[in-house]
Amino acid sequence: MGEPLQRVFVPSVTEEDGGTIGLGCFSSEDTAWQVLRAFLKKSEQMLLESSSVVIWDVDIVGEEAMTVLSTMHCRDCPVCKRRTFWMDLESYSAMCTGNACEAWIEESWHLEDSDKKDLLNPDKIVHNGGQVFFALEDQKAIGTVAMIKSSDDRFELAKMTVQEYCRGNGVANMLMDECLKFAKENKAKEIFLISNDSLRIARNLYDKYGFKEVDLDSKKYDRGNVKMRLTLD
User: Fold this and answer.
1) Cβ–Cβ < 8 Å for 99, 81
2) Phi and psi dihedrals of 18, rounded to 5?
3) For the residues 102-106, what does the mean pLDDT come to?
4) What is the tally of structural domains in the chain?
5) Nearest alpha carbon to residue 157 among 228, 108, 109, 94
6) How far is the C-alpha of 141 from the C-alpha of 84, rounded, in Å?
7) What range defines the domain where residue 46 resides?
8) Predicted local confidence at residue 157, as pLDDT
9) pLDDT digits (tens, 9 = 90+) for 171-183
10) How far from the centroid of its chain's Cα atoms is residue 168's Cα?
11) What is the rounded distance in angstroms from the CA atom of residue 188 to the CA atom of residue 178?
């Protein structure tokens, strides 16, 4: 027989009327998070207030047995406007667990499978060592960009966009500055991106920051016909 359980992990959600829905009792923290995240993908279909993962120690009486590992509160996503959950409201790190925030891509291109892989799992980008940044105005997102970790010292700059009415006001520059700061803080040696040569304004931005065109060796995006690279000191 195996070792007896010393603690269990319990994910749950709280509805706006105060009711609590328990999602199970698990011996692994990873399993508890997987179950919770799968449930929260449907959060926009329900009237939820918060969610949590709680650790319960075995054979201990009362509240001392309980440790709240994490609590998340339901909010309106500033990008897709769906009712959803955010892991870090103060910095607006992307953890929208609702369905895709995809309108910005469909403005110019059809949504590809590689887009869906990233947009449907924004928490995975962060969990894998990347980050997603938002530019906010009156607590509404007017721009966004992702830094997707490709290897220990390489990041892909992706999904950059600025709301049309805010373009030309330096928002893209601020987003790019945050990407460079993040890359340097994480000791990256290179940032690369895949773009399309029809996006002239974007190309001007990349040129301004020192990105150089290199051979296209990626088939990640059907729309991508240009690859650019920035080498960091």
Assistant:
1) no
2) 100, -10
3) 38
4) 2
5) 228
6) 15
7) 1-76
8) 93
9) 899 999 999 999 9
10) 25
11) 14
SS (H, E, C) the chain: CCCCCCEEEEEEEEECCCCEEECCCECCHHHHHHHHHHHHCCHHHCCEEEEEEEEEECCCCCHHHEEEEEEEEEEECCCCCCEEECCECCCCECCCCCCCCCHHHHCCCCCCHHHHHHHCCHHHHHHCCCEEEEEEECCEEEEEEEEEEEECCEEEEEEEEECHHHCCCCHHHHHHHHHHHHHHHCCCCEEEEEECCCCHHHHHHHHHCCCEEECCCCCCCCCCCEEEEEECC
Please name the residues in contact with 133: beta carbons below 8 A apart, sequence gap of 6 or more: 144, 145, 146, 147, 175, 178, 179, 182
Which is nearest to 65 in space by CA: 5, 150, 18?
Answer: 5
Per DSSP, what are the bridge partners of residue 85?
A: 74
Tokens of 97: 């667990």
- 150 and 210 both lie in a single domain: yes
Instruction: State both tokens at 167.
Output: 């373009």
| pTM flag (> 0.90) | no
Q: 70 and 110 share a domain? A: no
Higher pLDDT among residues 35 and 94, named by residue: 35
Computed on alpha carbons and rounded to an integer, the radius of gyration of the chain in Å comes to 21
Same-domain check for residues 232 and 124: yes
* Domain contains 82: no
Does residue 115 share a domain with residue 26? no
